[in-house]
Design a protein that fits this description.
This protein has 292 residues and is mainly alpha-helical. It folds into 4 domains: 83 residues, Rossmann fold; 41 residues, 3-Layer(aba) Sandwich (Rossmann fold); 58 residues, no CATH class; 80 residues. It has a two-stranded parallel sheet. The relative contact order is 0.05. The C terminus is likely disordered.
Length: 292
Amino acid sequence: MTAFYDDLLVKWAELMEHEEIGPCIRERFDCVLVHEYQDTNCLQSRILKGLRPSGRGLTVVGDDAQSIYSFRAATIRNILDFPAQFPGTHVVALEQNYRSTLPILDAGNRVIAESKEGYVKNLWSDRAAGPRPQLIACDTDRDQVDFIVNRILQYQRDGVPLAQQAVLFRTGHHSILLEAELSRHEITFVKYGGLKFVESAHVKDLLSILRLAENPADLVAGGRALKLLPGIGPKKALQLQSLLDGDDPFQAWSDVKPTAKAKALWPAFVGLMKSLAAAESGGSMTFPHRSM
């Protein structure tokens, strides 16, 4: 959450505590519903108290076993202390699960039972059939990726189509190593909830430089790579690429005077392209000391 949004919350809380403005705002709402209450912070709880001081007409929905945003200042105390903060609270346990099978819920119940504090609940489902979940311990991220890929290939050999297999992640960046390994095995996959690693802008930028080094006639790669430098647009990039020719094509850029904005970075960029091209043709590679 940015400082801008934090300021909105601070001012909102101050309004609710104002002796004249607070009541005017409160009377506009008969009922207030808050979702994912386990992930709210102290300031948001203060706003809620200002909206419904007595708790009448107030409903919050949440799961104390799924509080995961403490790094954003969320506190589980908001949901655990709710009945004490609003006397007369009626707690309704939503225990029936419509998504998971009973073996998965049994495992979840056993994990939740280890909590020292929380609301009592016993998750259950009409979907009784299903395999028991497995907990696989891997020493490194590489071991984890190897295990997943091998399991995917094994399921495929056993007759489970790739379209019926899925890998779930807590955050998108956890998929980077797996994406690379799936691509290496030529396993087709679709990523939901974010771009594939190779579709990220910074990765495309890097690949454009490598592709240009491999093929100086690649106008698409060259245009993208050159436009990374300040002051170089499509027209200038095309002019610069038209100079590339011969066995040492990037040598032609050594005497070129680029735009004023790109002047400081140009020698390092040319040196990088010459080194990459030499490595591609079987020579050695050196990198300029100056960072781009």
